């Protein structure tokens, strides 16, 4: 993980940039970090240590504000419409690039479009894991899918909402395995995990951060990964690709955005702040403990990454079709 030379030079030269706040003055006021889901989900797990690091850098409060609703659409749109002054940023999940396409399936204008958001920094990108209660009867992926085949629609799984980052991977698996699962959407990954732990549902596709403590304490079992390679510490967990499900690969990523019209000098300071945060020992330790790997990509590199993911997942959304 290397911070680009451009980020470093941008941060050093900002004080001289026309119209920019002096380095010692930025941001001068609290910077709100919006998470479009309730506490406890992957975006929240990533946002909190990063926000704490930004507070130490900037010496202002960086409160994490949870704005759940509509699978993340409400919180994402609030940042898209926010003043472009650097004082409001979004810690988004990968679903940020999917929700506008999903809205079009309903024949309605999206609450926001991607060109209203400026990519600042990708922070993490983790393969999704299939988690079930430790008391569940399935010890392997094969047992889970065989049961789903015998009992169409009888195995409920939770998600963070229709077309969300926790819904799409399960839809991909169900289509590839030719099984029918019962989708139970919630307003975020935190409530979806609570439903799994409380026995309301029997499966969940999740980023590693939220479920890691419950896997360690023996409450949850991981049956499979949507990644390309085995995960450190969970090497025994098979990937869906290794089980013959070609193309069933999904990563839940967390990245920071600002309103699109944010001036470049301010955006440069924001990017530099995130670049420093991912090298902060406290952030690295927190995300490592949560099982999330830092995958830092700044500005244009993040924009290219997100655009490629949007194009790939648009096909998944179209395959799922309209959910009434």
Please give a structural write-up.
Residues 1-22 form the signal peptide. Keywords: Signal. The protein is of the alpha/beta class and 324 residues long. It folds into two domains: 5-125 and 252-320, D-Maltodextrin-Binding Protein, domain 2, CATH 3.40.190.150; 129-225, D-Maltodextrin-Binding Protein, domain 2, CATH 3.40.190. Helices cover 38% and strands 19% of the residues. The chain contains eleven helices and eleven strands. It has helices at residues 5-13, 42-58, 73-80, 99-105, 141-150, 168-177, 189-197, 208-216, 264-277, 281-289, 299-320; strands spanning 32-35, 64-66, 88-93, 117-127, 129-133, 156-159, 182-185, 203-206, 220-225, 251-259, 294-298. The strands form two sheets. Strands 2-1-3-10-4-11 form a six-stranded mixed β-sheet. It is globular, with a radius of gyration of 20 Å.
Largest sheet data: 6 strands, mixed
Structural domains: how many = 2
Q: Tell me the distance between the termini.
A: 43 Å
Q: Count the beta strands.
A: 11
H and E order: HEHEHEHEEHEHEHEHEEHHEH
**Coarse structural class:** alpha/beta
The CATH architecture category of the largest domain equals 3-Layer(aba) Sandwich
Q: DSSP helix count?
A: 11
What general outline do the C-alpha atoms trace? globular
Helix content: 25-40%
CATH class of the largest domain: Alpha Beta
Adjacency order of strands in the biggest sheet = 2-1-3-10-4-11
């Amino acid at each position: 993980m290397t911070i680009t030379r451009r980020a470093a030079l941008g941060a050093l030269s900002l004080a001289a940039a026309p119209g920019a706040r002096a380095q010692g003055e930025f941001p001068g006021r609290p910077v709100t970090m919006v998470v479009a889901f309730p506490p406890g989900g992957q975006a929240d797990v990533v946002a909190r240590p990063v926000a704490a690091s930004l507070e130490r850098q900037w010496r202002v409060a960086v409160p994490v504000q949870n704005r759940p609703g509509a699978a993340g659409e409400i919180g994402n749109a609030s940042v898209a419409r926010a003043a472009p002054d650097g004082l409001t940023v979004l810690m988004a999940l990968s679903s940020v690039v999917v929700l506008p396409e999903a809205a079009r399936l309903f024949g309605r204008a999206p609450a926001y479009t991607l060109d209203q958001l400026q990519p600042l920094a990708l922070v993490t990108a983790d393969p999704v894991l299939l988690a079930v209660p430790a008391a569940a009867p399935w010890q392997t992926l094969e047992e889970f899918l065989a049961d789903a085949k015998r009992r169409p629609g009888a195995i409920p799984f939770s998600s963070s909402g229709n077309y969300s980052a926790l819904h799409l991977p399960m839809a991909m698996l169900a289509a590839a395995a030719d099984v029918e699962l019962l989708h139970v959407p919630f307003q975020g990954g935190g409530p979806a995990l609570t439903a799994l732990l409380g026995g309301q549902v029997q499966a969940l596709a999740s980023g590693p951060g939220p479920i890691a403590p419950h896997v360690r304490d023996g409450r949850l079992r991981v049956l499979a990964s949507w990644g390309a390679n085995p995960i450190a510490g969970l090497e025994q967990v098979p990937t869906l690709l290794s089980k013959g499900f070609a193309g069933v690969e999904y990563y839940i990523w967390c990245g920071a955005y600002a309103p699109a019209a944010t001036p470049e000098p301010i955006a440069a300071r924001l990017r530099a702040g995130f670049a420093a945060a991912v090298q902060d020992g406290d952030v690295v330790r927190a995300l490592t403990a949560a099982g999330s790997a830092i995958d830092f990509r700044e500005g244009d590199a993040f924009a290219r990454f997100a655009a490629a993911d949007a194009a790939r997942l648009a096909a998944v959304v179209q395959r799922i079709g309209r959910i009434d």
